[in-house]
Each structure stands twice: as C-alpha cells, then as structure tokens.
Amino acid sequence: MYSRYNRVLSKNKIILKTVKNTYKGIRIGVLFIGLGVVFLFTGLNFFPWILLLISICFIPEMFIKEERKKAFLRFYFFLGLFILFLYKIFWPGLLIFLGIYILLSSCSKQRKLNIAIKKHHP
C-alpha cells in the first residue's frame, strides 16, 4: 500500500515537472517572438515594451495550479511597471501599484495560513 502511494506520488511529481518545463519552453518562445516584434518596430521606445513582453511571458504559467498565484503576481508586477513607465507617472503610480501588490500577496499568504490552521485543528 505504502509503495503504491509512493509510486503514484513520484509519477505526479514527474508529470508536474514535465508540465512546468513545457510552460517554461512556451515562455521562452513567446519572449523571443516578442523581442523580434519589438526590434522590428523601431519607432517603439524599447524599455517599457520589454516590461509588457515579460509580463505576457508569465501568462502560460497561470494554467499550472501550483504556480497560478506566483505567476499572476509576476504578471501584475511587470504589467504595472510597464504602465508606470509608458504614461510617465512613476512615483505616484509606484506607490499605488506597490500597495495593491502588497495587498494581493498578503491575501495569498493569509489564505495559506488559514488552510494550514484548518488542517491541524479540525
């Protein structure tokens, strides 16, 4: 019984690792295509558009259940930086953006804490 559980668990880890590697490959492919598009349009200011490209690269990771929250926070972080630099509202926008980012990450940590408490105290 115990060895069967270990085999299933190890198979699930291998499958999850394969899925993560697949999404990493997709992310790198999207990055190169996006870099080509950014370089193709020379009229674009390179800096803020590279931040948008990096945020788009985290979208495929949102489909992995275990990585969804981290990928969303990374996506939000780089998208926010792109907007701040594009519209040149850096300091006031940065304060608002960081406040929202801290609230989102704190809510995620609080939810993990509640789940852990429920497991230990039914």
What layout of secondary structure does this protein have?
Blueprint: H1 2-40, H2 46-57, H3 68-87, H4 90-120
Number of helices: 4
Largest sheet: none
Helix content: over 70%
Distance between the termini: 26 Å
Strand content: under 5%
Low-confidence stretches: none
Query: Number of folding domains?
Result: 1
Element order, helices and strands?
A: HHHH
Our Rg estimate from Cα atoms comes to 19 Å
Total beta-strand segments: 0
Residue-averaged pLDDT: 76
Overall morphology: flat
Structural class: mainly alpha
What can you see in these coordinates?
This protein has four helices and no strands. Helix content is 84%, strand content 0%. It has one domain. It starts with a helix and ends with a helix. The longest helix is centred in the N-terminal third of the chain and has 39 residues, at 2-40. The model has no long low-confidence stretch (mean pLDDT 76). The chain is mainly α and 122 residues long. Helix 1 runs antiparallel to helix 2 and helix 3 packs antiparallel against helix 4. It is flat and about 50 Å long.
Key terms:
122 residues; mainly alpha; 0% strand; flat
How would you concisely characterize the structure shown here?
This protein has about 120 residues and is mainly α.
